[in-house]
Structure formats: structure tokens, C-alpha cells
Design goal:
Order of helices and strands: EEEEEEEEEEE
Number of strands: 11
Oligomer: single chain
Number of helices: 0
Strand content: over 45%
Helix content: under 10%
Largest sheet: 7 strands, mixed
């Protein structure tokens, strides 16, 4: 089985930065993708960024140029560096492995 634990959430001012981390344990293979999702109150869960083997990354249009996903296969971790944050980035952020296994989420609030 796979266990994912997110950390790094909190309160940040607009324009600020925050870095989320996800530690994975269990049967993890570098050939399968990892991803970050987010869900704001009253909205559907949104795919934010993906990281696959070979260093291929993809981003939602709403975060492209501001967020960076990084994967360390040796440590089984994936991070999300969030810069130039906006109030609309406020959400619970989840890490995901193989688009199948999920962490419990970490709250991110962008407010002055």
C-alpha cells in the first residue's frame, strides 16, 4: 500500500511564497506520475501540476509561471514551490501518486 503525507501549508500574504512537501512511503515507482491537486470551498478538485519520469512537468494555466513541481525519486518526495501567490490560490492542497493514492491534504490560505 501507499501512504502520502503533505506538509508546509499555512497562511501567506498575496505576492508571497510557500513551499509544500509530500513524503511518500510504500511501493513507489519513478515511472508513474505524481501530482498536486487543490480544492477550494464550493469548487471542484483541480489538477495543479504533474511530474512524470524523465523530468516532464505540466501545470494548470492558472499557476503556470508561478508554481514549480519537483520530484526526488531517491527520497520518494514531491514538492510544490508556490511564488507570487494570489488569494485565489487559497485551497486545500493534496499530493497524489498514480492518480490513485491521496494524502490527507494541507490548508493554504493567501490573505492580507
Amino acid at each position: 500500500q501507499v501512504h502520502l503525507v503533505e506538509s508546509g501549508g499555512g497562511l501567506v500574504q498575496p505576492g508571497g511564497s510557500l513551499r509544500l512537501s509530500c513524503a511518500a512511503s510504500g511501493s513507489i515507482s519513478a515511472i508513474y506520475p505524481m501530482a498536486w491537486y487543490r480544492q477550494a470551498p464550493g469548487k471542484q478538485r483541480e489538477l495543479v501540476a504533474t511530474a512524470t519520469s524523465g523530468g516532464i512537468t505540466n501545470y494548470a494555466d492558472s499557476v503556470k509561471g508561478r508554481f514549480t513541481i519537483s520530484r526526488d525519486n531517491a527520497k520518494n518526495t514531491v514538492s510544490l514551490q508556490m511564488n507570487s501567490m494570489k488569494p485565489e490560490d487559497t485551497a486545500v492542497y493534496y499530493c497524489c501518486y498514480e492518480f490513485r493514492y491521496w494524502g490527507q491534504g494541507t490548508q493554504v490560505t493567501v490573505s492580507s
